[in-house]
Fold:
Amino acid sequence: MTARIIDGKEVAAKVHEEVTAGVTEFKEQHGAIPGLTVVLVGDDPASLSYVKGKERACEKVGIATETILRDSSITQEELIWIVKRLNTDPAVNGILVQLPLPKHLDEDAVIHAIDPMKDVDGLHPENAGLLMLGQPRFAPATPLGVQRMLVQENVDMNGAQVVIVGRSKLVGMPLTALLLQKGIGANSTVTVCHTGTKNMAAETRRADVLIAAAGFPGAVTADMVKPGAVVIDVGVSRVEDSTRKRGYRLTGDVEFEGALEVASAITPVPGGVGPMTIAMLLVNVLQAAKLAVTNR
Ligand SMILES: NC(=O)c1ccc[n+]([C@@H]2O[C@H](COP(=O)([O-])OP(=O)(O)OC[C@H]3O[C@@H](n4cnc5c(N)ncnc54)[C@H](OP(=O)(O)O)[C@@H]3O)[C@@H](O)[C@H]2O)c1
Structure:
């Protein structure tokens, strides 16, 4: 069996179209443009490239975007002051502090300072709590993107055995909460693996839908995939590659070539979950703008 490759760019393009239409309608109804402000601390090249991708996507769908760049020497107080200023700016509907932050900054304190109604990354405890309670306001964009891809691909999630490798606040945990809910693209039986899992392969081999978010290449090998499973690879790692101009290439968590022969469908890296993450961020920004007008 050779798996179908799920094209994240194609699904993301559909979401972009929907958001573009939503932004146009919002402008007509409210005479305003949804706005996202990204705060980027330091000069990490991967973070810079993610932020540029977000800016480009916002421009494409008509969302106003601004990036506040600060040197990595910024203090906790200065960063929280910036966040609080954005909280009170009516032109800013979404605030995104690009993670990770330099070590001397307290990530949790910064996230907690964001107005939960502008927390388009869905990491504020209020939004994380609402998601766990089955009343999502903003869920993190990557899990939303994974779910949207599965829906778009007509994967029957109702009662499906889903195994997620990784339990992070950004991916594994919120994805678990999303897929456990009743409703379309969810109502699944979810198992979450982590470094404490005793026999991970035994767990993953039961998965109708296997989602890898461990963060290192080879975390999921072909023998860990059940024949016919749908495999979603969230992982993104840079591996040295002298044949590439930039000296590295991006790779996922899944041993792609091997899994391709076992799975029924699989996402590539790059071009799978990545574009969906950005697309669903746009959805969250539009949602934040709508919430801002209804709560005015
Ligand atoms: N494509 C995208 O848009 C996108 C977005 C976000 C993240 N990512 C990528 O997704 C990956 C995961 O990101 P993250 O933020 O969730 O990472 P993270 O915070 O480092 O979490 C990794 C998770 O994987 C688990 N894990 C690590 N090694 C394992 C092993 N050998 N066996 C079982 N579980 C293991 C960890 O378990 P413990 O909890 O026990 O430590 C942890 O829960 C990264 O490659 C990241 O770059 C991609």
About this structure: Residues 142, 165-168, 170-172, 193-197, 200, 213-215, 219, 234-237, 273-274, 277 surround NAP (CB under 6 Å). The chain is about 40% helix and 15% strand.
